[in-house]
User: What shape does this take?
Amino acid sequence: MKIGVVTFPGTLDDRDAARAVRYAGGEAVSLWHDDADLKGVDAVILPGGFSYGDYLRCGAISRFSPVMEPLIAAAQGGMPLLGICNGFQVLAEAHLLPGALTRNHELHFLCRDQKLTIEKTDTAWTSSFSKGQEILIPLKNGEGAYMCDDQTLAMLEGEGRIIARYVGENPNGSRNLIAGITNERGNIVGLMPHPEHAIDSLTGPSADGIGFFTSVLKAMVK
Amino acid sequence: MALDTVLIAQANPDAAQPFAELGLKPDEYARIKEILGRRPTSSELAMYSVMWSEHCSYKSSKIHLKQFGEKAVKSDALLVGIGENAGVVDVGQGYAVTFKIESHNHPSFIEPYQGAATGVGGIVRDILTMGARPIAIMDPLRFGPADAPDTRRVLPGVIAGVGGYGNCLGLPNIGGEVVFDQTYLGNPLVNALCVGVMKHSDIKLAKAAGAGNLVVLYGAKTGGDGIGGVSVLASETFESKGPAKRPAVQVGDPFVEKVLIECSLEIFAEDLVVGIQDLGGAGLSCATSELASGGSGGMKVQLDKVPLRDPSLSPEEILMSESQERMCAIVAPENVARFLEICAKWDVTATVIGEVTDGNHLEITFNGELIVDVPPRTVAHDGPVYNRPLAKPAYIDEAAQQVVNPPLPVTAAEIRETILTVASTPNLADKSWVTDQYDRYVQGNTIQSQPDDSGMVRIDEKSHLGVAVATDANANWSYLNPYEGAKLALAEAARNIATAGAKPLAVTNCLNFGSPEDPGVMWQFAETVRGLADGALEMGLPITGGNVSFYNQTGDVAILPTPVIGVLGVIQDVRTRTPMSFKEAGLELYLLGATDSNLSGTEWAYLHNMRGGTAPIADLAKEMRLIDLLLEARPLFGAAHDLSQGGLASTLIEMVLRFNVGAKIEIANPGISLLSETPGRVLIAIKSGEVAQLLALAAKYKIEAAKIGITGGSALDINDSSIGLDELRKSHTETFKKLFG
Amino acid sequence: MAKIVVDVMLKPEILDPQGKAVAAALPRLGFSFATDVRQGKRFEITIDGEPTAAQLAEVETAAEKLLSNPVIENFTVRVEK
Amino acid sequence: MAKIVVDVMLKPEILDPQGKAVAAALPRLGFSFATDVRQGKRFEITIDGEPTAAQLAEVETAAEKLLSNPVIENFTVRVEK
Ligand SMILES: Nc1ncnc2c1ncn2[C@@H]1O[C@H](COP(=O)(O)OP(=O)(O)O)[C@@H](O)[C@H]1O
Ligand SMILES: [Mg+2]
Assistant: This one.
């Protein structure tokens, strides 16, 4: 099972995402932003970081990278695609997912161990979890507040497309405590916190994050 | 604008030059003339003035820093020592680790965000220059009083700047310090440390060897950053109207640096460079003269080839610009095409600006005219050396006379009150408000970070080899006795490494002081260096590099002498480290090391406005026995945490809050027991069944070991007093939010 | 040489934490003039010569596609003297 | 009710990484109009009634002390209709 991990200039968590794929038992293939070639991968991760310095708006410049064209087409055709943090921002900027990620309400970069509940388990990236399961993974970003208009919010809630919510105090001002969402089909997922930093309790707050990566491997076997 | 060339300098030897405005003394100017056998061109004057500045030439400190070489221990672990961009240490399995601290104090006072950000950027480039991948940063910081209005301007900006730059580079922040004192109000200290790792074979040096090899400048374009001072050259020598405004502040672009790191590492991996140097202070002046004098000595540079962000820059300004995110590489001609190709891949501007030549002339031309022709060593290494007068300041003996007797808690209510005060005082309060703004997870190798005693990162995923780094300074003790203060800071940093189970290997330092022209300050400095050199020798640790920051003073009030000492250690398997606290109830708490009643220089005395007394005398032989004990007894420990500022009180607070497991403590003489800061102490948690083994080892290493309590519960109970963990946490964590939130 | 200015502001219904923080800071510094503050971005684009209608149309497109995110932001384009 | 606009831009001699990134992105998207891009901040301040001279003077002071950093930025204040 080959999972592509895209590197944009300024991407930081590509090696961690690749490690998470390996830990889960998959093969990680690195994809370069400037190369419109998906190298035959079965799924793709857009990892965290500060692509293009997060200048202008997070993800705004990266979404126009050459690799995005075949990627968008493949994802629209059903290929599993996970955007973590900056990757989520890219997905929102590319309108593959609704809404936008905006400045944290306290206006600081925030790095902390965050509890989430998994609310949707029938997506390509969350099937290893049980509904309502609480997990602990790092949250780290400056612009992680999920924003959208009321209509979109009602749609997301109504269709059950919120895959994970923050537990407890709202860390960044996200509407309805949204930590991650999916598209209708369940193959594209955007998640603000970082499961790739929680695959081993030696280096992370838990090993809870591995579930996202084992999920997609299962989904692809099917 | 007329160009001052070597020919003109020869033809017009008596032209007046603004050397004083550039910070050169008349005798220094005379020496330049003597070296060149003529007056310098304005470009040469620019180079000498900046390279012979205190910051670049170490003219006041050199004579003292020599001791680090003279007293050095012979260490097989040291692969590259003082003199290069950063020292390199062998940590085994073919890995080499490099680390260094630098200061960016003054710029951070002027523009806190950019000052701190570019401070991080600069030290990271120093580490990259050695051929290493940067893997972690730390940020020892000092500010004025926590509630001073200017601290509310400086601190949030500095924190945002350290985070803004470091986070964007993808470097985990694994520790640092935040300390407040009145003397830092106009002189905040922003020190930044970076650690990097490489294979032995990848070590790179700053040398331009091999005639015919090319000089490649790559990274950001050159702008007018940080050259406020040099504009006098343009205004006085050339045009009466003067040049456009030149910013004194440098603005960093962390995105460009991140790309520069990846691009450089790809270049290193293909072995495409002969020598390399980052551009930091003194920009191209420094890089070209250091590269040339580090190699065979000759170099030709075409300055007009330098890509400019601001086309109005004069050659003098291009030579002195401190624009960030630039590197200079020496590349064999056959490798240049590939070098440029990698740069193009990363969208990094790269330009061949010159070549290495035979001989010992650094020749710089501008549009074909020779504007610099100097022996590079005279610029880079043969700067002036001062043996500045020094005198023990009067305050030392006065302070020694003072009685330090702050009120001590006796009753249960007083103990409670004391613990809450210690928990919430800004110097000892929880620093999450700061560290939550730093990414500690990126790269996926962080084993320890704040609030642990040391930062620890894994460097090999398979073998689990790791390194630990701690930085420490105790300016209160350094103020009372700079010699002992330096030794005590060294011992503390080493101890902080060892509590986690890592073996101390090497030392770096950042010496922050007032004006070297004040004999009292110079004495503090000399005593500090002597203490550090003696201490490192006694502990068998090589000093691999460092940095000196002078002129941190407001009027004639200097900052407290603040030698920040960094110690690096190695741990064979990070999975076996000792955590700083306990998750289990029922463990016995043992205090290793004895406590004495000296309260001088403690946080408790400071809280009661008592700054006098005498510092403890460092017992490094005992510190080393304690370290050996910690390393040998490690398998027995459930937790180990160092005692330092805030004494046992602070250590207990941090331990019970770490994993939210309380403790029951029984101590005689609670005031002294809780508040003394006697060095050489560690609190450990151990299973009852293993105590006998511990005591045997403690006896072997002649370290006192005393049971003071037991873990468990949801409160910190000390004798008859009790504080619930929730209340304690609130008091510990609220301080920073209230002040800066 | 001309300067084209693109102003980008969050839509009124989108929460603006930066503007809110400024609005809260002003009274602490003794300034009482503001009833509301919103913070946005200003782009100054330099072009060679006087802008043509075609160029201005291009700037509009760039403002819509790149400089702003229509999900949360509005923009205006104008030529500045 | 009136709107006062404060525009804050980095001084021309100061590096503007954001503007640079935008300028580099435009041609990649096929836009060739820009010879330079600078990015700054725009504050829209709402006040009750028409602004008085005293209020405008206050806004100037606030712009200098809070909204901009004079070490690296310039600002302009104007009333918008
Ligand atoms: N306090 C010190 N202790 C030991 N070495 C020092 C100290 N200060 C400076 N050095 C060494 O002197 C050399 C020059 O220092 P510096 O100018 O800071 O380096 P760079 O030019 O790379 O910034 C370096 O090798 C540095 O490690
Ligand atoms: Mg250097």
Notes: Chains B and C do not touch (no CB pair under 8 Å). Residues 330 and 495 of chain B are 41 Å apart (CA to CA).
